[in-house]
Amino acid sequence: MIVIKPKGSTYFSLGIIVVALLAGLILILRDFAYKGSFGLWFYLIAASLITLVLLMLLVKMLAGFRFITAGRDQIIVKLPLRGFQKAYPIAEILAWEEEIVIANKKEFKQLTIAFSDRQSISVSNHEHHAYPDLVNYLVKKAPKKKVKNKKA
After folding, report:
1. DSSP notation for 91-144
2. Rg for the chain (alpha carbons), in Å?
3. CA–CA separation, 18 and 31 (whole Å)
4. pLDDT recorded at residue 23
5. Contacts by residues 119-127 (CB-CB < 8 Å, ≥ 24 positions apart)
6. Contact (Cβ atoms closer than 8 angstroms) between residue 84 and residue 119
7. Per-residue confidence (pLDDT) for residue 151, from 0 to 100
């Protein structure tokens, strides 16, 4: 069985950024309440911007928290924060595609799998463990469902 789970280092680094943003938001609001060193417009814009970035990071972290198990001719998707768990037989895969992007001399890969019930999952090599094992599993079990990449 292949178990694909989020990398702890990714969530640790994002968690540090979230804590830093939260500390910055608290400091800005505390400065507004006690000193008022800047104009009202600065506090409105800064607090709104930091809150927006903080919420976007939290949503990304929570939406990406998933566990995928592949083996025995099925793929089991677990989304613990939604309370969702479903086992998909290999026959229910409509298509799968691996996208490879090279940026800053690093290779970023993302695998997208579409199922017959209109659900899809995406897994990347920088955010999840056992990414190459899942790709090899799909190449072996569902080679005809792979989307052929067209080069322009």
Report:
1. GGEEEEEEEEEEETTEEEEEEEEEETTS-EEEEETTTBTTHHHHHHHHHHH-GG
2. 21
3. 20
4. 98
5. 119/77, 119/86, 121/66, 121/68, 121/77, 123/4, 123/68, 126/7, 126/10, 127/6, 127/7, 127/10, 127/64
6. no
7. 60
> What does pTM read for this prediction?
0.80
| Whether residue 125 is found in the same domain as residue 105 | yes
- CA-nearest of 138, 6, 146 to 74 is 138
Residues 34 and 90 in one domain: no
The domain in which residue 75 lies consists of: 67-145
Tell me which residues of the chain have a pLDDT lower than 70: 150-152
Contact 78, 67 (CB under 8 A): yes
- Does residue 150 form part of some domain? no
Angle of helix 40-63 versus helix 8-34 axis, rounded to 10: 160
Count of Cβ atoms closer than 10 Å to residue 68 Cβ? 20
In a domain, 106, yes or no: yes
Rounded Cα distance, 22 and 127, in Å: 23
**The predicted structure's pLDDT at residue 150:** 63
End of a domain among 63, 83, 107?
Answer: 63
